[in-house]
Every structure is written in C-alpha cells, then in structure tokens.
Specification:
Number of strands: 12
CATH superfamily of the largest domain: Reverse transcriptase/Diguanylate cyclase domain
CATH architecture of the largest domain: 2-Layer Sandwich
Strand content: 15-25%
Order of helices and strands: EHEHEHEHEHHEHHEEHHEEEHE
C-alpha cells in the first residue's frame, strides 16, 4: 500500500516534553487536602516541604531553603501577605520564586500581593496541570535571568552548557565551538581602571553579537562564560570569517583606548603590582576553535576540555590570533 502524503494544511505534532521543576518545593496552606494534592503532584520530581500556616512556612524557608514556595493567602497565625513580606526582607527569601493561591473574591488582595513581590498567583479551584506548568515557567525564567551576565546581557554557563549538550548530540549537525579570550586584560584593568575594563568586555561582546546577528535564529549561539571569556557555537564554514571579523573590529576599537604613542610602540608603561615600572602589551583577542566533526566530541566535558586546550594554543600566538583544531580523529 502506498503511504498517503500528509496534507499541506496538517499541523505538525507537538513533542511532549517533561516539565522541568524545582528540586525542593515548600507548600504553605492551612487546608490539608490542598497540601496533599500539591504534594502528590510534585513529589515524583521534587522534595516537598509542607507547612500549615505562614509562621511554619517562614521557619521552613529559612531552615530548608527551598527553590520554590507556593502559599495560600488566608491562613491562621500568619497569613500569606505577612509571610511574603517577611520572606522578601530576608536574604534567603529575597530571590525565591513565590506563587500565591487564593479564592475567587480576592482581586484587590492579589494586586497588593504583587507589591509585596509575589511572582504569580492562581485562583482556587485550580487545575493541577496549569499549576505545574506555571511553576515550571517561573522557575526556568528565573534561572535564565540569573544566568544572564548583567554586563553583556549574554547567556551564562547554565544556558551555554545546555546549548552545547544539544548541539553535540549524535543526531545534530556538526558545529564549530569557538573559545574567545582577551589577552593582557588584567594588566589593562589595573592600569585603566575597572570602568574601562568593563567597556572592553562590552566591546568584545558587541563584536561577537554583530557577527552573530545576520544568521538565522538558532544558527549561532553566543555565551559569556565569565570575566573576559566567551564561547560561540556556529557553522563550521564561518570559522575564518569570525577570525577576520574579530581582528578588524577589535583593532579599530582598541586603537582608541591608548595614546598615539602607546599605539605606535605596541606597548604601554605602567607600575606593576609590585610597585615597579614595567612594559605591558596592548590588548588583543585569542580565539581557539574546535569542531564536533572530531571523533569523541559528543560529550560536554570533552568539548570543554578541548576548548580550553585550543584556547591555550591560540594565546601562544602573537596579536589577534585564531587557532583551529581541524582534526577529525
């Protein structure tokens, strides 16, 4: 029998994925049936703590430090407002995601709860499926926000590791992994000050962003490992183009960071940390690149190890350098 071709109007099937949930959840509600329903819903993927009023909830928040809190609004001893207010005043509760449960007629109270710092709310009776989806969404959104570098607004280690893991999968097409690092940055930071140092970090981030922006979404990924280290995932045929782009743009920009005399000489003179005069090289960028075409590059730890090796080899070269590991074995 000849298989029937799918209709052009047919909608693609959505792939059902497991929700990513916090590992430790605190449930605060004076209704034991609500606590039981929620505990049963989460306990397969999370360690669930339970409290029957705000005072108990606050104590567990500080002693157990959960990753997420779900609290009722109306409770004896200490209500949800007071729990929320006190939680947000503490360093432990200041950043924890909090969801408020309430009844149908609490609209004004809900508006007030946002002023106290609640992240989301859900009215009773609620759908457990919707509750879990909201908890997962808030949790992941906050994790991503924490992982974004505040200076460059680029994804940090968590998102970078996740992206590398997806792209080194055996079914994924080969990619290039470029490890980009500034040379002589520490001495520049000491000489020029942290504000100028931050400017240089933003500069290299903007150069990488400008290279990545013309590509289709998802084709290139730029992450900020921390400090002056960046990683880019990109098509293999764009390696040389990246090297040329960094060399041209960084050279043009860094000339403005030095006096004409320093730029002409290729170094500047300053007092080192020992209090002695010393010559320091001008800033440059080293880029070490590996490709997942190489055998064994299907594991995050292996990729990270080889990336560190090729970056070291790139830094051994003078000036703005590009070192590419083109081995396939």
């Amino acid at each position: 029998m000849t298989p029937t071709a799918p209709s052009p109007d047919a909608k693609p099937k959505r792939v059902k994925r497991d929700l990513e949930l916090p590992g430790k959840i605190l449930i605060v509600d004076d209704d034991p049936s609500i606590r039981r329903i929620l505990a049963t819903s989460f306990q397969k993927k999370a360690f669930v703590l339970q409290a029957e009023n705000g005072a108990e909830g606050l104590e567990l928040l500080h002693s157990e430090q959960p990753e997420f809190m779900i609290t009722d609004l109306h409770m004896p001893v200490m209500d949800g407002f007071e729990l929320l207010r006190k939680a947000r005043k503490s360093f432990i509760g200041a950043g924890i995601p909090i969801m408020m449960l309430t009844s149908e007629g609490d609209n004004e109270a809900l508006f007030d709860s946002f002023e106290f710092g609640v992240d989301d709310y859900l009215k009773k009776p609620f759908s457990v499926k919707e509750l879990k989806a909201r908890v997962s969404s808030i949790y992941l959104r906050q994790r991503r926000a924490r992982d974004v570098n505040p200076l460059t607004r680029l994804p940090g280690n968590l998102m970078l590791k996740s992206e590398i893991t997806k792209r080194v999968h055996h079914d994924a097409p080969p990619v290039a992994v470029a490890y980009v690092d500034l040379d002589h940055f520490k001495s520049f930071n000491d000489y020029q000050g942290f504000d100028r140092g931050d400017h240089v970090i933003e500069l290299i981030a903007d150069i990488l962003k400008s290279f990545a922006s013309p590509f289709e979404p998802g084709e290139v990924f730029v992450g900020h490992v921390g400090g002056d280290d960046f990683v880019m995932l990109m098509p293999i045929d764009q390696i040389d183009a990246l090297g040329a782009h960094i060399d041209q743009r960084f050279t043009e920009a860094t000339e403005l960071l030095y006096s004409p005399e320093e730029w002409q000489r290729g170094y500047y003179e300053a007092v080192n940390r020992a209090g002695e005069p010393e010559r320091f090289d001008l800033l440059s960028v080293s880029t070490g690149v590996l490709t997942t075409q190489r055998k064994g590059m299907d594991d995050l730890r292996k990729v990270a190890q080889v990336a560190a090796e090729v970056k070291k080899l790139a830094k051994a070269l003078p000036g703005n350098s590009l070192f590419v590991d083109r081995r396939t074995e």
